[in-house]
TrEMBL record, chain A:
Keywords: ATP-binding, Carbohydrate metabolism, Glycogen biosynthesis, Glycogen metabolism, Nucleotide-binding, Nucleotidyltransferase, Transferase. The lineage of its organism: Bacteria, Bacillati, Bacillota, Bacilli, Bacillales. Involved in the biosynthesis of ADP-glucose, a building block required for the elongation reactions to produce glycogen. Catalyzes the reaction between ATP and alpha-D-glucose 1-phosphate (G1P) to produce pyrophosphate and ADP-Glc. This is Glucose-1-phosphate adenylyltransferase. SUPFAM superfamilies: Nucleotide-diphospho-sugar transferases (SSF53448), Trimeric LpxA-like enzymes (SSF51161). Residues 7-259 form the Nucleotidyl transferase domain. Belongs to the bacterial/plant glucose-1-phosphate adenylyltransferase family. Pathway: Glycan biosynthesis; glycogen biosynthesis. It comes from the Bacteria.
UniProtKB/TrEMBL annotation, chain B:
InterPro entries: ADP-Glc_PPase, GlmU/GlgC-like_hexapep, NTP_transferase_dom, Nucleotide-diphossugar_trans, Trimer_LpxA-like_sf. This is Glucose-1-phosphate adenylyltransferase. Keywords: Glycogen biosynthesis, Nucleotidyltransferase, Transferase. SUPFAM superfamilies: Nucleotide-diphospho-sugar transferases (SSF53448), Trimeric LpxA-like enzymes (SSF51161). Belongs to the bacterial/plant glucose-1-phosphate adenylyltransferase family. Residues 249-318 form the Glucose-1-phosphate adenylyltransferase/Bifunctional protein GlmU-like C-terminal hexapeptide domain. Pfam families: Hexapep_GlmU, NTP_transferase. Residues 19-146 form the Nucleotidyl transferase domain. It comes from Planococcus halotolerans. It comes from the Bacteria. GO terms for molecular function: glucose-1-phosphate adenylyltransferase activity. PANTHER family: GLUCOSE-1-PHOSPHATE ADENYLYLTRANSFERASE-RELATED (PTHR43523), GLYCOGEN BIOSYNTHESIS PROTEIN GLGD (PTHR43523:SF6). One of its GO terms (biological process) is glycogen biosynthetic process.
Length: 388, 340
């Protein structure tokens, strides 16, 4: 059946800068906000934007993602027609072909797109926390009569050189795309969200596939090639919260943004809900001994200790006398009696022993893992509290 | 599969009328994020029973909305699964469990089911009863009907053969009995009876007093752990609420808190359902605040049960007592100085 727009969600990345968090799961499956996984955001954006056909391209550690997304029921993507389709690499008569670059991943799934015959293709990545109505972007794309539209967000000038930047004219037409320039002439960063006219996309992907020098990447190859081909390229100015959570620090930052009333990241919003696969857990219990300040806490938790400015996932137990400050605690972890932890991301199902201390004062964010616990020497002068 | 289950949701709970004005007794909220029927349904699926008939009274919209096709309990199946069976019974007509008049309305449920034994239970008995174990003991006893008891108290859950149940339904007028519970209480001849001894969490919600006290008992972490067993989860309708946000200035102690709430006030010894808002400087003590209630700033609530969608305007003071909590009806708006 012919579709107006089909979304292709690139979820194959490892995200090595997130270290141990991605040893066993792909980056889009990383927990966020006490209840969600990163991929819930683009998937929910699709549902809320009434895009009902979504291909999810997986490659690195796909098991959890496939299991998590399942038939797409939590996002209302279990549709008779369309819905969510998981697209891992596959084998053909001449062997298995791993996805080699973002553009190549889409190119290898042209059969999927052909079956739907969309007018437009929306390319998304599973690395960002944001709420966005893709239909407004499509309206813009159509109005601009562009071959491709790239969603951009204004970033602070001092940070601009970390991003892929779009230079535009006053009609928001892209004149130049530069990847991480030393001397930025624009502060409009690409959000990794693209809309292509399907026929143009097909044409450029086929041409790119022939090019042996290409890295088969949307940002590095396809967008520059289209600019070179004098295609009409528009930049869609997105206003709102958007964060790339590709590092431990930025993942922590984005979680903390949930506690900041001015950050623009609001999840208590019934008009634009973020859907998620809900585990069935009882309400949280907070006891007589607890002290909770400015925190985000999910179901199934037992809070007996002190919690300040933290985001706590389901099924976490914080025992009496424990002190948690500016932490992100992932599901199923137990914080032992008297443990004191500051500025850390605590990985899932961790058993933190009583009186464990991690209270750095240098502002750095620690990724607290099983290894950290095993290496902990248990005394006052251990490696982690030495900077006190 | 040897068991099918019947939940008699036509039973009225005396004393809970205030909370059942706009809903079936079976869908009265309990323990923050649940409805009473969730516990019966969860016990059934945790006992691997996958054929369930929910016999509902006429006032069944909220119940139907809550359980839908049984997706949350994994009961939306091609074969067997959940059967929502509205009956001609009105709320208030029926006080005992396994009403033959209600079951008679849907004899087809029994005709079609392939399971030889039937669990008959209700929505206001809350436990972690394992019906498979109960069936084993029932079969070993050789009795016609087994009732579950804890410390001698009847749990209002029964097992009997489908054949016998259908016989009883066909002859109940002649035999001058009204329900399975009635038959068991009268020790009606010629049937033989056995008891299944259950240990573990069990409460009967059969009055406003038991509703309030058993709700509050869950604030005790030990009781909470007895009811919420990780290996036997209690399932409910999924709502996709975000985690609860404790705002600056909030002070929450000894409470049960569901998801989606925004808490700014001082909260003690209370149960908060999903998506509740408690404003700045408001004091909530020994209260049950249901889904989507908004308590504005500077309120003072003690021994209050606020039903769903209640709004308490800024500065309101509402005090009940332990013996007689103030019940605020669904959707009401309470303003400062209003007498309740």
């Amino acid at each position: 059946m012919k579709k107006q727009m089909v979304a292709m969600l690139l979820a194959g990345g490892q995200g090595t800068r997130l270290k141990e968090l991605t040893y066993t799961v792909a980056k889009p499956a990383i927990p966020f906000g006490g209840k969600y996984r990163i991929i819930d955001f683009p998937l929910s954006n699709c549902t809320n934007s009434e895009i009902h056909t979504v291909g999810v391209l997986t490659q690195y550690q796909p098991h959890l993602l496939h299991q998590y997304i399942g038939l797409g029921t939590p996002w209302d993507l279990d549709r008779r027609d369309g819905g969510v389709t998981m697209l891992p690499p596959y084998a053909e008569a001449d062997g298995i072909k791993w996805y080699d670059g973002t553009a190549n991943a889409i190119f290898q799934n042209m059969k999927f797109l052909e079956a739907h015959q969309p007018e437009y293709v929306l390319i998304l990545s599973g690395d960002h926390i944001y709420k966005m109505n893709y239909m407004l972007m499509l309206d813009f794309h159509i109005k601009q009569q562009a071959a491709a539209t790239i969603s951009v967000i204004e970033v602070p000038w001092e940070e601009a050189s970390r991003f892929g930047l779009m230079e535009t004219d006053d009609q928001m037409q892209v004149t130049r795309f530069v990847e991480k320039p030393k001397d930025p002439k624009s502060n409009l960063a690409s959000m990794g969200v693209y809309i292509f006219n399907y026929q143009k996309l097909k044409e450029y992907l086929a041409r790119d596939a022939e090019n042996e020098d290409s890295s088969h990447d949307f940002g590095k190859d396809i967008i520059p090639a289209m600019l070179e081909g004098n295609e009409k390229m528009a930049a869609y100015p997105y206003k709102g919260y958007w964060k790339d959570v590709g590092t431990v620090d930025s993942l922590w930052d984005a979680n903390m943004d949930l506690l900041d009333l001015d950050s623009g990241l609001v999840l208590h919003d019934s008009a634009w809900r973020i859907f998620s696969s809900n585990p069935q857990l009882p309400p949280q219990v907070v006891t007589e001994t607890c002290e909770i300040e400015e925190s985000f806490i999910n179901e199934g938790c037992i809070i007996e200790g002190k919690v300040r400015k933290s985001v706590i996932s389901q099924d976490v137990h914080i025992k009496e006398g424990a002190e948690i400050d500016e932490c992100v605690i992932m599901a199923g972890s137990v914080v032992g009696k008297g443990a004191k932890i500051r500025r850390a991301i605590i990985t899932p199902d961790l058993d933190i022993p009583a009186n464990f201390k991690l209270q750095k004062n240098d502002g750095a964010i620690t990724l607290l893992t099983k290894e950290t616990i095993e290496n902990w020497e248990g005394s006052e002068d251990d490696a982690f509290s030495s900077s006190n | 599969m040897r068991l099918a289950a019947v939940i008699d949701a036509t039973v009225t709970i005396p004393g809970l009328k205030e909370l059942a004005m706009y809903r079936s007794s079976a869908s009265i909220p309990f323990a923050g994020r649940y409805r009473l029927i969730d516990f019966a349904l969860s016990n059934i699926v945790n006992s691997n029973i996958n054929s369930v008939g929910v016999f509902a009274s006429q006032q069944s919209v909220s119940l139907m909305d809550h359980i839908g096709k049984g997706k949350s309990w994994d009961l939306d199946r091609r074969r067997n699964g959940l059967y929502f069976l509205p009956t001609s019974q009105r709320e208030g007509d029926q006080l005992s469990v396994g009403s033959f008049a209600a079951l008679e309305d849907h004899l087809n449920f029994f005709n079609k089911s392939t399971q030889p034994h039937i669990v008959v239970t209700c929505a206001f008995s809350i436990s972690q009863l394992d019906y498979n174990d109960m069936l084993e003991k029932h079969l070993a006893s050789g009795a016609d009907i087994t009732e579950a008891v804890r410390d001698g108290e009847c749990m209002k859950s029964y097992i009997l053969s489908k054949e016998l149940l259908m016989q009883m339904i066909k002859g109940f007028r002649e035999n001058r009995v009204v329900s399975v519970e009635d038959v068991v209480n009268l020790k009606k001849k010629p049937y033989t009876f056995a008891q299944y001894e259950y240990e573990g969490y069990f409460v009967l919600i059969n009055s406003m007093e038991s509703y309030f006290n058993e709700s509050m008992a869950l604030l005790n972490e030990i009781t909470w752990r007895q009811l919420f067993l990780p290996e036997r989860p209690t399932y409910t309708k999924v709502k996709d609420e975000p985690p609860t946000k404790y705002m600056k200035g909030s002070n929450v102690k000894r409470s049960l808190v569901a998801n989606g709430s925004l808490l700014e006030g001082e909260i003690r010894d209370s149960i908060l359902s999903r998506a509740v808002e408690i404003g700045k400087n408001s004091k909530i003590e020994k209260c049950i605040i249901m889904q989507k209630c908004v308590i504005e700033e500077n309120c003072d609530l003690l021994y209050v049960i606020a039903d769903k969608d209640v709004r308490i305007k800024a500065g309101s003071v509402v005090h009940g007592t332990k013996e007689k909590p103030v019940v605020i009806r669904k959707g009401s708006i309470v303003s400062e100085g209003e007498e309740l």
